[in-house]
TrEMBL record:
GO terms for cellular component: mitochondrion. This is Methylglutaconyl-CoA hydratase, mitochondrial. PROSITE patterns: ENOYL_COA_HYDRATASE. InterPro entries: ClpP/crotonase-like_dom_sf (IPR029045), Enoyl-CoA_hyd/isom_CS (IPR018376), Enoyl-CoA_hydra/iso (IPR001753), Enoyl-CoA_hydra_C (IPR014748). Pfam families: ECH_1.
Length: 307
């Protein structure tokens, strides 16, 4: 298999690209859009950190235009490596995941690549695909998916792994795997019913139905749907606004709130309340909590440092 015993040259190439872009990602960029991203085609996942008032916001861009950001082995490996690095990135408070390819977020699985895989190779690859996609869910800060283009199959599952989703009204979204005689394999059967309810999730998965951003907001699949603009980045711009609303708040508190909500959803109410109590306790000894109280007393804006 590629990620463990497969072509060493390709694996080494993917890893080198990841290390390069993680290092380059420490350099800043503005909030303007795709033109700020490198055109280095060997790197299909690009990470950049915003500067100025937006410091603390990072943007991860998918950039595999020749296959509409399909989730092939190299892209999966780069996602896995970058999410591992982000777990320890103290300078990041919010991550926006977007596409650098116009009118597409992610087309799902790389079907041409998959057609060449044996059954054994596929059985080994799918857990790595699931792991790379759901790496976003365990990051210690909010992750926002900016959907300015279609997200189908594994592409929608990638968006489902994020905490929040913003979609342009015209984008196409769907878990279409049953049309290919398979089922969603990167978390879709579990996350979708938790968002929209089991009956609606079953309808969407059984029928392989594709919906637009407006319908997605109506059923609770996305937080916001927005009219697309001439630059085709309306969802990204709205995601940036949402990130800016989160940014001033205590990063430790936001992390603990994320954990309390995510853990609580998996258990009964009593156990969920116990999780809340435990994570609340983690905020008590922080310097940020004291800073919040002092700022309130002194009638000024708090300056939180994540400590």
């Amino acid at each position: 298999m590629f990620l463990s015993n497969g072509p060493k040259i390709l694996k080494k190439h993917c890893l080198a690209s990841v290390l390069s872009v993680v290092g380059n990602g420490m350099q800043g960029m503005t909030s303007e859009g795709p033109q700020n991203f490198s055109s280095n085609t060997s790197t299909v996942v690009k990470l950049h950190h915003l500067e100025g008032d937006d410091e603390g916001i990072a943007v991860l861009g998918l950039n595999r235009p020749e296959v509409k950001n399909a989730l092939g082995r190299c892209l999966v490996h780069q996602l896995e490596e970058i999410t591992r690095a982000l777990e320890f990135a103290k300078q990041v408070r919010i991550l926006i995941v977007r596409s650098m390819v116009p009118d597409i977020f992610c087309a799902g699985a790389d079907l041409k690549e998959r057609a060449k895989q044996s059954q054994d190779e596929l059985k080994q690859f799918i857990p790595r695909l699931r792991s790379s996609v759901w790496g976003f869910a365990s990051l210690p800060f909010p992750v926002i998916a900016a959907l300015d283009g279609a997200a189908l199959g594994g592409g929608l599952e990638l968006a489902l792994s994020c905490d929040l989703r913003v979609a342009a009204e015209t984008v196409k979204l769907g878990l279409v795997e049953t049309g290919l005689a398979i089922i969603p394999g990167a978390g879709g059967t579990q996350k979708l019913p938790r968002l929209v309810g089991p009956a609606k999730a079953k309808e969407l998965i059984f029928t392989a139905k594709v919906i637009d951003g407006i319908e997605a907001e109506r059923i609770g699949l996305v937080n916001y749907s927005v009219p697309q603009n001439d630059n085709h980045d309306a969802a990204y711009q709205r995601s940036l606004e949402l990130a800016r609303e989160i940014l001033p708040n205590g990063p430790v508190a936001v992390h603990m709130a994320k954990l309390a909500i995510d853990k609580g959803l998996e258990v009964d109410l009593e156990s969920g309340l116990a999780f809340e109590e435990a994570y609340y306790a983690q905020t008590i000894p922080t310097k940020d909590r004291i800073e919040g109280l002092m700022a309130f007393k002194e009638k000024r804006k708090p300056v939180y440092k994540g400590e």
